[in-house]
Design brief:
The complex is a heterodimer. Chain A is of the alpha+beta class. Chain A has 4 helices and 3 strands. Chain A is 42% helix and 27% strand. Chain B is globular and about 95 Å long. Classes of the chains: A alpha+beta, B alpha+beta. At the A-B interface, helix 1, strand 1, strand 2, strand 3 and helix 4 of A face strand 1, strand 2, strand 3, helix 7 and strand 4 of B.
Chain lengths: 146, 374
Amino acid sequence: MSETSTRQRWLATLARASRSEIEVLASRLGHVPSHEILKAPETGTVMVEGRAGGAGRRFNLGEATVTRCVVRLADGAMGFSYALGRDGRKARLAAVIDGLLQTEAESGPLHGGIAELAARQEAARELASRKAAATKVDFFTMVRGE
Amino acid sequence: MYVAVKGGEAAILATHDLVAEARRGNEAVPELAVAQIREQMGLACARVMNEGSLYDPDLAALALKQSQGDAIEAAFLMRAYRTTLPRFGSSEPVDTAKMAIRRRVSATFKDLPGGQVLGPTYDYTHRLFDFALMDEASAPAAPNGARPSAQPLDASMPRVPDILGAEGLMEPETPPEGDPRPFDLTREPVSFPADRDVRLQAMARGDEGFMLGLGYSVQRGYGHSHPFVGEVRVGEVSVEFVPEELGFAVDLGEITLTECQMVNQFAGSKDVPPQFTRGYGLCFGHSERKAMSMSLVDRALKARDFGEATEYPAQQDEFVLYHSDNVEAAGFVEHLKLPHYVDFQGELELIRRIRKEREERLARETQALPEAAE
């Protein structure tokens, strides 16, 4: 897996995590390391695009709130956070964690925490899918006229 | 004519206090929390997000609380807030084929790959009151949760029109040359005839009731159509965005979407054999009625493309697009209650003059009559 796609994966996990989950993850560090804020947490929007018929011409469906933050750690690593919603505190912590993950050994506490979060998110998705599967229709055909 | 009039400040401040009191209602009843509205009035929040054209369930819940549940007032609050935010850019187009399905039904195929998944729906309820919901004391501490099946749904749930498309029976939906950026009606003025991207954006933020009425008019004969629900699907879809400074797509999280693919009767030409035609609806949240209505009107608005007559409202883009936005419509209808004292003074003077002239004319005619009789 390329470095980019690994990073994309943890950014997706962080974006889906709640603020309290990210606070728990950050608490694994003991303290939040010093960092410079390059772009303070800022809430804006992203225009969500769809495609006509699902695969055709692009169109603007409507906007969604997004909060972003960029930090620089003492070692020079830049940490980013982009996620739906308006949580500035979550954005700042997630950006710091993104910066740290880039240099942390794979066996490190943050990588471990991200793996746990990702597993929990996957389990929630699977449970939702199994609940939907319980409402799947089993058709049977009635034979008439016998 | 507008003339500045001063006064009314004290009355306006007092009405702010009074509306706050009216909103709160009886203080002996516990106040609603925004999170309760978000979790327990999710379909109302979805409507506010669609018509406010902003996906944020917390803000939609706050808007409903602040507006005492008035959906249009709530959409107005969302629109007003949106104008205060910078826009970071546009997402990658969402891929509904990869939706994490919670509901997916087709009226055209019984046995479709992935199956018919009813999901959470009121369709098969009896519409009888559940008085247990009213009696909080007797309600069980935890409701009987949904029982999950042993297996999740199939990983792949193909969109139904794509199945018919494989046989060439379906009007294809492919991006135009170069996959152009869509028009944005929040940034540029709309002109007519409006292209499909403009129409779809306008309908996605259009009033659900208006879209439903127009969709219904199509079914009742005001627009030639013979629609089938190819598919309705509801579930979660990832939103991806490429920040300039990163240069790769970042997954921002998931939003809930409802998609409707309406299959309609045929069109063809000398060069193209007859094919089913299609209408498309896509909405924020679980918003089936809206997505279905939108897909009916989307098909009706294609009339010109298929060389059909455009004699009915649902087939006329200018009519649909200029009247579907409930914030604009409410603004223009409701502005009538604001002071028009000077305009009306002018009208009063005019009608008094007309009446006076009429009386004078009648008086002259009565005087003239005896002479005519001689």
